[in-house]
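new request in #modeling-help
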Amino acid sequence: MIIKGKLREYLNNCYQCAMCSGICQMGRIQKYTPSRIIQLIIEGFEDRIVESGMLWDCLTCNSCLEKCPYEVNFAEIVRDARNKMLDAGIMPKIAHKGFYTLLSEIMSKENITPEKTFEWVPSGCEVSEKGNILYFVGCAPLFSYEFDESMNNAVDTLKILCKIENEPIVLLKDEKCCGHDLLWQGKIEAFKKLAIHNIKSFERSGASLIITSCAEGYRTLKIDYPSMFENFNVKVKHLVEYLYEKLKENKIKFKKEKKNTKILKLTYHDPCRLSRFLPKSFNIYEKIRYIFKELEKVGYVYNEMVHNKSNSLCCGVSCWLNCSDKAKALRYHRMLEAKDVADNLVTTCPKCEIHFRCLQNDTETVQDINVIDLSNLLENVIEVIPSQQNKEVSKK
Amino acid sequence: MKIVEKSDKKQVKKDREFKPNIVCFCCNWCSYAGADLAGVSRFQYPASIRIIRVMCSGRVEPAFILKSFKDNVDGVLVTGCHIGDCHYISGNEFTKDRFERLMKILKYLGLKDRFRLEWISASEGKKFAELVTTFTNQIKKLGPLNNI
């Protein structure tokens, strides 16, 4: 028996309304849907589910929790079941031959201390080892193994931060992977080791604010670290939240680009980790729409996709599991939706970006839409309102 | 009594010389024949390597290297035909490109010195023996991977 104890109680709450099966994104292309899986487990056909390996197929996109009247957290059930499936020797198929997962697992060893080089730091940016504001780069440098553009996101985010802040930004030399992929693949022990290392190095740097530009990293640092380690209580902000606050405080504004006479049509893909995976009070999907409203004032056009905010469709892959035809079908569907309303698809999750770009290499029909990260879009547009003006206003 | 015995054992372990575990991928057409030649011509080299024969060095995925490091192998050697001599025409060119990219990541993890890519042809038995000797010495200096 793989699912025991607390998880069982979770399952017993389910009264088979099958809302989750209706919304499940894999449900359209798969025989078994969440409610059916829950029913089979309760009825005692656990072995059949485990042998078929269908729990490895779950996207953990949390669409089901969004609709569930009893808040049965199916994604968490899947996560813990995966941990037990690994113990039982039922292995997943990991995409990219398990390369990125292996990297995280090697990093989780205590005797390995990574040494980052900061060649990529753009000129004019001040970087230090100790300070107030820390930028958590995450796995972007590692993705450069296969994806040449992966560093653009980090470079542009750092440029934005340097523009706005007067003090040098902290980059950690011995920063390890945040562990998101390992956690959702069920390798919880390795995740804990990574987390302990990271928390220690955060403390050493003396930072009071951590900024990330990655959706998965944000969710992990913001929710999973504090829930496992009580002593971790540093503020964590995503770039979206950070920029939203600066806009509200009147510290930055967007300027018009003179070069571009062509009007850019934008649309935004909500990553699951920044919408459904956070408590509703976080409200990040409204914050980013505020940023787009401001952008509309300087001549951009923003259109909403059919499925948006917490109903948004999935990019098809999470934590490097099961990149298959099914996943590509989901992604294709999403990109067609974007193509209908805009010619620039903005997102805030580096992995969504990588996966969309990957599909563009294969399929001609979606090649004409441009996939960009929020930081790439805003890097040229942001203008800092000098503090002297503020002072003059206050004097008057 | 038992505690004393245990500490004795530990001391013995410390005194024993460190013998590295090295995984060596050899391509079937050149390097494996080269290793064979080294054996036939009786060149001496340390018994620290475990040879895995693959049909072409292009078969060796970077994930294999990471997997061996994950399982506490102390060093990894990848050998193949010289560029231009590949039995499958361009297999080793892919290998070269792939491992140049991997090198960046190994550098980041601090495992750069524990990995080496070399080209060895079927007639270079001597070179193979020398390579294994120098690489083993290099790993010996670095010490075992699981307690750096």
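bot summary: Chain B touches chain A through 20 residues (CB under 8 Å).
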